[in-house]
Here is the input.
Amino acid sequence: MTSSTLHFNQSVFKKKFEQYIDSDRRIKGTVDKFATKVFTSAKTKLIQDFENSAITQELKQGPQGDNISQTLGGYGNLFAFLGFFDNQNPTEELENLLMNISMGKMATRKGNTVYYKVKTPDKSEVEDATRLNWGTNSSWAEGVESGDFAGDADLSHFIYTSWVNGRSKEGLQVQGQVRESEFEPKPYLSAILANFRERINGGKV
Here is the structure.
């Protein structure tokens, strides 16, 4: 009996394997299931990140909440500072946007890499969902990260006090400077979405 060696040409084998992936529905189904599992896990953690954020929690406390985000140095709270109406839920529209994040079917495949299209909110959608009540185009979600509210909200002019004519009834902006404090920007939605994309791209469950 003689022996022989079996040789595999790696490039040919790879090409055949890719063709098999394209033609076999069972493999496609397995890939789809794994992709869905990764997406679902990442989205669940995204919503948790959003709900656990000090920014979200502080705004949900309403006009008499505590400044747990420390954006105002512990003085007053974001809800009153940003001038939301006292019965408003400012995070609701943003939360709905995040809940509507979706993943489409397998879009393309290049080599051994399979791509799925994940739709996340774009800049204009976030701005529309987080626009402030008063005469400005500012987005509060972007503002808490940059500290820029188009000059309409300034911590040095903010007084946290019950004021029956105010939107939140718990604060007002005055013309004269009343303190040296400045708004302290904090990571928020951009960081939450970046973590989401990292989990998706990393394929972690």
Remarks:
- Residues 161 and 171 are 5 Å apart (CA to CA).
- Residues 25-52 form the longest helix (28 residues).
